[in-house]
Specification:
CATH class of the largest domain in chain A: Alpha Beta
Strand content of chain A: 15-25%
Largest sheet of chain B: 2 strands, antiparallel
CATH superfamily of the largest domain in chain A: P-loop containing nucleotide triphosphate hydrolases
Strand order of the largest sheet of chain A: 6-7-8-3-9-10
CATH topology of the largest domain in chain A: Rossmann fold
CATH topology of chain B: ABC transporter involved in vitamin B12 uptake, BtuC
Bound molecules: adenosine-5'-diphosphate, magnesium ion
Largest interface: A-B, 34 and 21 residues
Oligomer: heterodimer
Number of helices of chain B: 14
Distance between the termini of chain A: 30 Å
Number of strands of chain A: 10
Strand content of chain B: under 5%
Number of helices of chain A: 9
Structural class of chain B: mainly alpha
Number of strands of chain B: 2
């Protein structure tokens, strides 16, 4: 088991963003994390990546308790994430953006220079813009792709993806699904947060449904499709199925 | 240590080499001592602006106590020379070490805090250093002023120009080189997006402390040279008024550019000198300029230069 969450809770003032969440993730799996807006998906990714401290519960990663580790340490240990709203280093070039992670996020002994690793991460995500472009000149879709390359450049074992498919054309979406599958084939465990149910159902081995901070269902795509509570939670949400 | 392609190894662009070359031969024509004095003042303030920008423009922490670190270097150097008989040529190194140590400890104390809190703390550190220097009058002679041995016997300005020019050059090249190294990439990542820097494995506190310590080391070094150039020190060198002037030059020059502050110094230091009646209003004018820069041209002179560069092809520049 690569990741084990036990009894994770997180409050923001009076708001309970996560309530007693437990989940296990096996190595090499792709987990889909779904739920309506405000369900707590991003908060859960923040807790796993270390940008937020949970109020209760523990996180075990590769068999070790990591709750006390800072997010930069967690990145070095192989947990990387993308951001729902891209946060590029805007005054840096595309290449430099990715190199930051290649240099500081990857502590494995590598012969290949960081520049080459950054370039191959860009190639891997099929980034088509010149790598000397300043990040501030990229559009939202390009920024998300850049963020994915940055997250991959730190050579993760566990990759957290927060709505990276938003705004893509069907063709681009197919490419992205390919990239994610390919990443898993390299042995990376992945958590995907996404609203597009078609994509989630096609991609994931397991799905967890959050609703107002609670885990209301967990199972294979088939099980989730037939789950009544899930259908109820999504009632009125037209993106399901 | 280089981050980018081979061009990164060349720390200085052809244009900056050209300008530095012009500057270095300028005193051969300029005979006027007063003009030379102005050039020296510009170099002194400009190099301070670069050391300041190394923190403000890279890790995005404003060191409101900057001049106190300059002053700490100046006093350390002066006292080492006066009491331990060290050569004035070595004193500034002692000043650099002292300011670096001070910077390191205040960095460790303050730089865990977020932006504005860190800035406020640096201000307190500066105030503390200032009042310490003023009150330890047995050592520093307080506001009566401390007479400091000069580098040279001569009162001629030209040798001093070359001394200060050398230090400025050293400051520029070192900061520029560090800024374009891997460590510099970490600095810029932290300054541009803290959350993403963390998510990319950069330890913010560590690199902020490294950056702050380096900036303070150069502040101390420059302070030392200032001391043995001027010959007299009062606690006023540590005043936040000085910091504001350095800050203004760095911001007008263009945050994160390093060289912008130096260019700004060569514009505004002589300008204020010729507008003597405005001297008293200097800080007000700097304030207005700062506001204008922030509104109209947040990238300062450096950004204007970049825009020009894209429009005009200089004959001696590649690409
Ligand atoms: N930093 C924060 N401070 C206060 N409330 C927050 C913060 N982050 C998230 N929330 C709240 O927590 C809830 C869950 O948010 P989030 O995890 O972003 O949901 P999702 O990603 O599933 O759309 C929302 O109600 C949101 O407003
Ligand atoms: Mg979200």
């Amino acid at each position: 088991m690569i990741l084990e969450l036990q009894g994770i809770s997180k409050r923001f003032g009076g708001l309970v963003a996560l309530k007693d969440i437990s989940l296990n993730l096996d190595e090499g799996q792709i987990l889909g994390l779904i739920g309506p807006n405000g369900a707590g998906k991003t908060t859960l990714l923040n807790v796993i990546s270390g940008s937020l401290r949970p109020d209760n519960g523990y996180i075990r990663y590769q068999g070790k308790e990591i709750s006390k580790l800072s997010s930069d340490r967690r990145c070095q240990k192989g947990i990387s994430r993308t951001f729902q709203i891209s946060r590029p280093f805007s005054k840096m070039t595309v290449l430099e953006n990715v190199m930051v992670a290649a240099i500081f996020g990857d502590r494995s002994q590598k012969q290949e220079p960081p520049r080459d690793r950054a370039l191959s991460a860009l190639r891997f995500v099929q980034f088509s813009i010149d790598e000397n472009t300043l990040a501030e000149n990229l559009n939202t879709v390009q920024l998300k792709r850049l963020d994915l390359a940055r997250a991959l450049a730190s050579n993760p074992s566990l990759l957290l993806l927060d709505e990276i498919a938003a705004g893509l054309t069907p063709l681009e979406l197919a490419d992205l699904v390919g990239v994610i599958r390919h990443t898993r084939e390299r042995g990376v465990t992945i958590i995907v947060v996404e609203h597009l149910m078609r994509m989630i159902l096609r991609l994931c081995d397991k799905i967890v449904v959050l609703h107002y901070g609670e885990k209301i269902a967990e199972g294979t795509p088939e099980e989730i499709c037939q789950d009544k509570r899930v259908a109820d939670a999504y009632l009125g949400e037209n993106y399901l199925l | 240590m280089s981050t980018g392609g081979s061009h990164r190894w060349v720390v200085l662009s052809p244009l900056s080499l050209f300008l530095l070359a012009v500057l270095s031969v300028l005193p051969l024509w300029v005979q006027d001592e007063y003009l030379l004095q102005l050039l020296i003042s510009s170099l002194l303030l400009g190099s301070q602006a670069m050391a300041f920008d190394f923190t403000a423009g890279f890790i995005n922490v404003i060191n409101f106590g900057f001049s106190a670190f300059v002053g700490a270097g100046a006093y350390t150097s002066a006292l080492l020379v006066l009491h331990w008989g060290i050569s004035p040529w070595l004193g500034p190194l002692g000043g650099a070490v002292a300011s670096a140590a001070l910077g390191f400890f205040s960095g460790v104390l303050t730089l865990r805090l977020q932006g504005i809190y860190a800035a406020v703390m640096t201000w307190f550190v500066g105030l503390t250093l200032l009042s310490l220097t003023a009150s330890l009058s047995g050592l520093t002679r307080g506001y009566r002023g401390l007479n400091v041995p000069l580098f040279l016997e001569t009162a001629a300005r030209r040798p001093y120009f070359y001394i200060i020019f050398g230090v400025t050059f050293l400051t520029f090249v070192s900061l520029r080189w560090t800024g374009s190294s891997r460590v510099g990439l970490a600095f810029r990542a932290i300054g541009q997006n803290l959350e993403s820097a963390r998510a990319s494995g950069v330890n913010p506190t560590k690199y902020r402390v490294i950056n702050f310590t380096l900036s303070c080391a150069f502040a101390g070094l420059l302070g030392g040279f200032y001391a043995h150039f001027l010959g007299i020190l009062t606690p006023d060198v540590m005043h936040s008024r000085q910091t504001v002037e350095v800050l203004a030059l760095a911001y007008i020059g263009g945050r994160g550019s390093l060289w912008g502050g130096l260019v700004a110094a060569f514009i505004f230091v002589p300008l204020f000198e010729y507008l003597k009646p405005l001297m008293e209003l200097r800080l007000v004018i700097y304030g207005v300029l700062l506001i204008l820069v922030m509104i109209w041209c947040p990238g300062g002179l450096a950004a204007i230069y970049t825009q020009l560069k894209q429009q005009v092809r200089w004959p001696f520049m590649q690409r």
